[in-house]
From TrEMBL, chain A:
Listed InterPro entries: AAA+_ATPase, ABC_transporter-like_ATP-bd, ABC_transporter-like_CS, ABC_transpr_MalK-like, ABC_transpr_MalK/UgpC-like, Mo/tungstate-bd_C_term_dom, NA-bd_OB-fold, OB_MalK-like
Domain ABC transporter residues, every copy: 4-234
Name used for this protein in its record: ABC transporter ATP-binding protein
Record keyword Lipid metabolism present: no
Entry GO CC: ATP-binding cassette (ABC) transporter complex, substrate-binding subunit-containing
Organism field: Vreelandella andesensis
From TrEMBL, chain B:
Protein localization: Cell membrane
Main location: membrane
A Pfam short name: BPD_transp_1
Lineage of the species this protein comes from: Bacteria, Pseudomonadati, Pseudomonadota, Gammaproteobacteria, Oceanospirillales
Protein name: Sugar ABC transporter permease
Keywords (A to Z) from UniProt: Cell membrane, Membrane, Transmembrane, Transmembrane helix, Transport
Length: 373, 304
């Protein structure tokens, strides 16, 4: 049975439609990530799940029960806020046990719960402090502690790490992942950071303008995006969108990328990936999507076995990141990014042979931006 | 900049000198005036309180004789007890009403701006106007009592203003009417400053609305309560115009406050020495409230 089910939820603020027919269903113990640009309605959806904002229409079920019109307290949900929202006048201990106290949990159990949470998050030394005396990372921990003190059916995290510095964010990300693996709780987690989304999620919902564009596993969303928005949003550096023309080649297809000064680049489309809709796009402009890692530098020693198509281009910028090198190469009307190994010795201005992994390439309709193949 | 040029230049230029001294020259008269009229007169009052001055100031020193006369004066004690009673009730009721109004206005209601202005409006009136209006309202022959009796409730009585035991409460009513809107504005600003998500967190924690206010929001407003008490205490001690306009200190001297006591004795009853002594005690009262306030303000400012 679904731990959380959102059914055709709409939310309007006056005339502004913020959520448009959102439907999501996740199983118990799943980690769902809502990701999308800022202002797309992620927090609004969270508030709707929590019961902090009434929905305009639609239903929300928790553990199979319709909770659409229940108060936040009756829904048995805990939430971690972006601003942490710790009670400033209470100590960390009181902050953590407040929810239990309000639910009339006996004192002894409250004390035990605080101990358990403090142990889990290693915040024992902070228990008697006030929030103002804590650092950002410590506040974040306490905010999580407050959510973990109760054992609600669903946890909501609204951009919990976005106020932390980069290093702490990576550490906390790992800790949240461990915590989830250990406790097996159902979590809905909002972020606009696609790395966080990829690393934490069992299931990702990509949102835009109040719509859910795609709901699927991180692998699906990353490798099988439904449209150009999802493809461009997930992954960093983002996917290259290359304008090309679809042509017939033998009994299959090929993509021609027009380059003004020299011969056009022709990339054959792998025949096993032919899709029904492609025939209508013949000789029309089309968008070829290739992620930076779908390019690799041609290695003479391996060229016999290596798969993929060769392509030549001039390098304009070389950006070593340490683990690998990002190359910027003008190709036709656009500039593409390719990710190559750290040993690749190349200087700006030189020409380079790149191997393109067309088996993982994706095609989009140039007008609707929807996925074709 | 100007200081360093005047110091390093061998012969300071006229314009450099002017630049350095102009601000001081411009400020000097007002500083001198306020030193003289505020602190000078404070000092003079203190000196007078040590003399036997009656109609006109004299310098025939009697030590703290006027103070002991004051302590023995029945009317001074009435005024002091009145101030205690009036001040306490005024502050407490203003706070309670102000907080309640602020909470109600904070519920995202329509026309909030208009309501806020209506509640705040009495503060724009002078205490004299408030006093006169309430004098009419409370007058048994003209005001509320006459109106309700006119509706047929013949036995209805509301004549506190002419009852020497109850008249002090009419001062409280009028003063609360005037100041509670202001307290509401203070609290409303405070409530708006409280992070929204704290309230949301408390809702999810299962707290009811009254509990959210009492346990979570109000503790955040402690500085506002403090400021409000300071301002109200200050208004209470200085209440003079309201008493003059509403009851004139009467019936008898039942609604005298230290300020009216001081005025009556210094200027109407030719007891300048005694009046000065009472003025000094009032100053002491104000300072006793103000100094801890300023101290805590300055300290909190230093700590950021
Ligand atoms: N209380 C509100 N009243 C009116 N509009 C709102 C309110 N809350 C959010 N919105 C609007 O809803 C949209 C989505 O907001 P939000 O859910 O906070 O976005 P996100 O969390 O994805 O950044 C925004 O355009 C915002 O202006
Ligand atoms: Mg948000």
């Amino acid at each position: 049975m679904a731990a959380l089910e959102i059914h055709n939820v709409r939310k309007e603020f006056g005339n502004e439609r913020v959520l448009k027919d959102v439907s999501i269903s996740i199983d118990s113990g799943e980690f769902l990530i809502l990701v999308g640009p800022s202002g797309c309605g992620k927090s609004t959806l969270m508030n709707a799940i929590a019961g902090l904002e009434p929905v305009t229409s639609g239903n929300i079920y928790i553990d199979g029960e319709d909770v659409t019109w229940r108060t936040p307290a009756e829904r048995d949900i805990a939430m971690v806020f972006q601003s942490y929202a710790l009670y400033p006048s209470m100590t960390v201990r009181q902050n953590i046990s407040f929810g239990l106290e309000m639910r009339k949990v006996p004192k002894a159990e409250r004390v035990a719960a605080v101990e358990r949470v403090a142990d889990l998050l290693q915040i024992f030394p902070l228990l008697e402090r006030k929030p103002a005396q804590l650092s950002g990372g410590q506040r974040q921990r306490v905010a999580m502690g407050r959510a973990l003190a109760r054992e609600p059916k669903v946890y909501l995290f609204d951009e919990p790490l976005s106020n932390l510095d980069a290093k702490l964010r990576v550490d906390m990300r790992t800790e949240i992942k461990k915590l989830h693996q250990r406790l097996g709780t159902t979590i809905v987690y909002v972020t606009h950071d696609q790395v966080e989304a990829m690393t934490l999620a069992d299931c990702i919902a990509v949102m835009r303008d109040g719509h859910i564009l795609q709901l699927g596993s991180p692998d699906e969303v990353y490798n099988n995006p439904v449209d150009m928005f999802v493809a461009g949003f997930m992954g960093s550096p983002s996917m290259n969108f290359i304008r090309a023309t679809l042509e017939a080649a033998g009994d299959g297809y090929a993509l021609r990328i027009a380059t003004p000064d020299e011969d056009n680049v022709l990339l054959p489309w792998p025949s096993e990936r032919n899709a029904a809709g492609l025939v209508e796009q013949l000789n029309k402009p089309i968008i070829l999507g290739l992620r930076p890692e779908h390019f690799s530098e041609e290695d003479v020693r391996l060229s016999e076995q290596a798969e993929g198509t060769l392509m030549e281009a001039k390098v304009s910028v070389v950006e070593p990141t340490g683990a690998d090198i990002l190359l910027r190469l003008p190709l036709g009307e656009q500039e593409i990014t390719a990710r190559v190994g750290p040993k690749c010795a190349i200087a700006p201005g030189e020409r380079l042979s790149l191997r393109v992994d067309m088996a993982r390439a994706v095609l989009f309709d140039a007008e609707t931006e929807k996925r074709l193949a | 900049m100007s200081e360093s040029t005047t110091r390093t230049a061998v012969r300071p230029t006229a314009s450099g000198w002017l630049q350095a001294w102009l601000p001081r020259l411009v400020l000097a008269p007002s500083i001198a005036v306020s030193l003289f009229f505020v602190y000078g007169f404070m000092l003079w009052t203190f000196v007078l309180s040590l003399t036997s001055s009656r109609m006109l100031p004299s310098y025939d020193f009697v030590g703290f004789g006027q103070y002991s006369r004051l302590m023995a004066n029945e009317r001074w004690w009435v005024a002091s007890t009145n101030l205690m009673l009036f001040g306490t009730l005024f502050i407490v009721i203003c706070l309670v009403i102000g907080v309640l109004l602020a909470m109600l206005l904070d519920q995202k209601i329509r026309q909030e701006g208009a309501l806020r202005t209506i509640y705040l409006y009495p503060m724009a009136l002078s205490f004299i106007v408030t006093g006169v209006v309430w004098k009419w309202l409370l007058n048994p022959q003209l005001g509320i009592q006459a109106m309700v009796q006119g509706w047929g409730f013949e036995s209805f009585r509301f004549d506190w203003i002419v009852d020497s035991d109850m008249a002090i409460y009419t001062l409280v009513i009028a003063a609360v009417w005037q100041a509670s809107g202001f307290v509401m504005a203070l609290f409303l600003a405070g409530l708006r400053g409280v992070d929204d998500s704290i309230v949301k967190a408390a809702q999810l924690d299962g707290a009811s609305l009254p509990r959210i206010y009492w346990r979570v929001v109000m503790p955040c407003l402690r500085p506002v309560v403090f400021s409000a008490v300071m301002i109200l205490a200050h208004i209470a001690i200085k209440s003079f115009d309201l008493v003059v306009a509403l009851t004139g200190g009467g019936p008898g001297y039942a609604t005298d406050l230290p300020a009216t006591f001081m005025y009556t004795h210094a200027f109407n009853r030719a007891q300048i020495g005694l009046g000065s002594a009472s003025a000094m005690l009032m100053l002491g009262g104000v300072l006793a409230i103000l100094i801890p306030y300023l101290y805590s303000e300055l300290r909190s400012r230093k700590h950021g």
